Amino acid sequence: MTTFWAKRRTAIFGAIVVLVTAGVTAYALSAIAENDRRTSRATEATTTSMPQIEKGPRILFRHTGRDADYGHVGAVALDDPGGARALTDLSCDRVYAQARSVSCLATEQGVVSRYRATDLATSTPGKAWREVDGTDLPGLPSRTRISPDGELVSSTVFVNGDSYMVSGFSTRTLIRRVGGASYGDLEKFSLVVDGRKVSPVDRNIWGVTFADDDRTFYATVATGGRTYLARGDLTERSLTTIADHVECPSLSPDGTRIAFKEADKDGTRWTPAVLDLATGRRTVLAGETHSIDDQIEWLDDGTVLYGLEREGEPVDDVWALDTSASATPRVLIPEAASPAVLR
Fold first, then answer.
1. Over 70: is that where the pLDDT of 276 sits?
2. Of 161, 110, 107, 115, nearest to 135 (Cα)?
């Protein structure tokens, strides 16, 4: 009898488990389906055409909504960044643009993943972007920038899949002319650190931002466990450090300041900050309490933009923050990353 009732209880318990599991699974699938329907309806309700967006100033970005357009390049009107967005068929890991030129760094999935930088251009509003140049990349896409006149493009990749959070990461950063010659790996440029010409084997360079003369640029240089802001010269093929503790610089539209991320002592958290190039004065934007691991973009001369992952969700949003020390950040473009302002 004991064996009979033990077996019966086991059978009943097993049946209950199956029913509960089935119910939970059905509920979860229903919730996922409903979420997909909500996402689809939201996307349909907030989508417009690229020709409509291109009629005026706009912000280009990478769409991060968990839907069929995830990773695709989109755009919103500069005067209505939270409004209707135009989405394209172009898919990128990182994207940047100036005027009518676009730089897209992408991963091509396969048995062995490949990485590629593609340069595209548009002619008139409504016309499709066309590929004008491209090159294979030696590693995982990280950063890209285009010079103000659209003539130069930079790309930074992680070699062997390293990341900023891993000690001893390696990068490769290239600058080339769109449709023309490459200046090659910036690690081959001569390097002056604190007024002394050096040739360290551990140097890493990333996060290029261009001035408007097609010669001057700024980038992060890391060596000996320290990070520096370096001014680069394409004609002289040189890099010269001008400040320390600066990562992922971004030159302001007026060319007078550098927005960047400043690491804490452990190198595991970054706060946005601004450096005045003439005076060397730093303003740490302490109103942002999250760690910002992005190359900042300027919305205008007094506001910066950056991507930030939502807490508990695999979705990025683009945030805006005034450059006063105690300003409060705000979401500017939901479900977006890698912003580029086209004025």
1. yes
2. 115
Residue pair 155/208 in contact (Cβ under 8 Å)? The answer is no
DSSP three-state, residue 152? strand
pLDDT digits (tens, 9 = 90+) for 127-180: 678 899 999 999 999 999 999 999 999 999 999 744 443 445 699 999 999 888
pLDDT in tens, 27-57: 333 333 334 433 333 344 478 988 889 889 9
Tokens of 14: 């097993």
**Which amino acid, 89?**
D
Phi and psi, residue 35, nearest 5°? -65, -40
Q: Which two tokens stand for residue 338?
A: 């890698």
Distance separating alpha carbons of residues 195 and 193, to the nearest angstrom:
5
Cα–Cα dist 115/186, whole Å? 19
Going by C-alpha positions, the residue among 153, 136, 63, 139 that lies closest to residue 99 is: 153
Does the pLDDT at position 262 exceed 90?
yes
Distances (CA, A) of 332 to 95, 120, 140, 324: 18, 26, 27, 17
Closest CA to 84 of 108, 63, 110: 63
Distance CA 149, CA 55 (A): 20
Percent of the chain past pLDDT 90, that is, above it, reads 73
Distances in whole angstroms, Cα of residue 174 to Cα of each of 48, 132, 156, 206, 217: 35, 18, 7, 9, 12
